[in-house]
């Protein structure tokens, strides 16, 4: 199985890219959101991948983070959700948006994906809600980095790519907040729901502020 590709983009299609990996081209299907965030032809790129193999089909799907890849795999375990629908959901909401929608039971957000009806959206939320805390705890840090250099000459002479800016530190507030709430005795489901709500109100909260905001939401009312 192919779990990751690093190379350069040959071209970008409507729903896929062709990645040249040392002279071998791989067609990788991606969501609208992922496609929009990728660099142009000739630029270095790296994607986590998942391969779908059937009698009549062999397809690679690409993702910028392990969270996105894991949601893709989980979404396809739901009856009525195939690769196309899973990609549409991730393209509409993004990996973090899927985490929040499912943790909060917000099937209307899921239904916003193209081609999804209300019954299927409700099934997605009902079947995957218990999975949301685990996926959210993976955090935003497990993103794939583009290679520092790729082979770009036909004579296989390595040519260094332009220097790339150092990546920003990963935002670990979400998994750290979930861990802290678990240590305080809160169940995974209620902790995930509170964290998702707090991040929906302010996505830039650091760990301490996120924990405080979630605790306010979890505090008994009255």
UniProtKB/TrEMBL annotation:
Q: Which CDD domains match?
A: UBA_RuvA_C (cd14332)
Q: Which UniProt keywords apply?
A: ATP-binding, Cytoplasm, DNA damage, DNA recombination, DNA repair, DNA-binding, Helicase, Hydrolase, Nucleotide-binding
- Recorded source organism is Maritimibacter alkaliphilus HTCC2654
- What quaternary arrangement does the UniProt entry report? Homotetramer. Forms an RuvA(8)-RuvB(12)-Holliday junction (HJ) complex. HJ DNA is sandwiched between 2 RuvA tetramers; dsDNA enters through RuvA and exits via RuvB. An RuvB hexamer assembles on each DNA strand where it exits the tetramer. Each RuvB hexamer is contacted by two RuvA subunits (via domain III) on 2 adjacent RuvB subunits; this complex drives branch migration. In the full resolvosome a probable DNA-RuvA(4)-RuvB(12)-RuvC(2) complex forms which resolves the HJ.
Q: Which Gene Ontology cellular component terms are annotated?
A: cytoplasm; Holliday junction helicase complex; Holliday junction resolvase complex
Task: Give compartment(s).
Answer: Cytoplasm
Q: Name one GO biological process term.
A: DNA recombination
Region (Domain I) residue spans? 1-64
Region of interest (Domain III), ranges? 169-222
Q: What is this protein called?
A: Holliday junction branch migration complex subunit RuvA
Q: In UniProt terms, what function does this protein have?
A: The RuvA-RuvB-RuvC complex processes Holliday junction (HJ) DNA during genetic recombination and DNA repair, while the RuvA-RuvB complex plays an important role in the rescue of blocked DNA replication forks via replication fork reversal (RFR). RuvA specifically binds to HJ cruciform DNA, conferring on it an open structure. The RuvB hexamer acts as an ATP-dependent pump, pulling dsDNA into and through the RuvAB complex. HJ branch migration allows RuvC to scan DNA until it finds its consensus sequence, where it cleaves and resolves the cruciform DNA.
Which HAMAP family does the record cross-reference, listed alphabetically? Answer: DNA_HJ_migration_RuvA
Q: Which GO terms describe its molecular function?
A: ATP binding; four-way junction DNA binding; four-way junction helicase activity
Query: One Pfam family from the UniProt entry?
Result: HHH_5
Domain notes, please? Answer: Has three domains with a flexible linker between the domains II and III and assumes an 'L' shape. Domain III is highly mobile and contacts RuvB.
What gene does the UniProt entry assign to this protein?
ruvA
């Amino acid at each position: 199985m192919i779990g990751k590709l690093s190379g350069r983009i040959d071209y970008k299609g409507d729903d896929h890219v062709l990645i040249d990996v040392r002279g071998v081209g791989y067609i990788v299907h991606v969501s609208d959101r992922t496609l929009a965030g990728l660099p142009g032809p000739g630029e270095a790129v790296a994607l986590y991948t998942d391969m779908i193999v059937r009698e009549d089909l062999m397809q690679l799907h690409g993702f910028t983070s392990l969270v996105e890849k894991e949601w893709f795999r989980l979404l396809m375990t739901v009856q009525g959700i195939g690769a196309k629908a899973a990609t549409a959901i991730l393209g509409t909401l993004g990996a973090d948006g899927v985490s929040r929608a499912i943790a909060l039971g917000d099937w209307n957000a899921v239904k916003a994906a193209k081609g999804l009806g209300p019954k299927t959206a409700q099934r997605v939320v009902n079947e995957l809600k218990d999975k949301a805390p685990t996926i959210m705890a993976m955090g935003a840090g497990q993103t794939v980095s583009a290679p520092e250099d790729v082979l770009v000459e036909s004579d296989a002479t390595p040519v260094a790519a332009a220097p790339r800016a150092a990546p920003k530190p990963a935002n670990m507030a979400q998994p750290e907040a979930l861990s802290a709430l678990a240590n305080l005795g809160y169940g995974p489901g209620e902790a995930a729901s509170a964290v998702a709500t707090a991040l929906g109100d302010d996505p830039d909260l650091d760990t301490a502020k996120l924990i405080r905001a979630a605790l306010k939401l979890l505090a008994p009312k009255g």
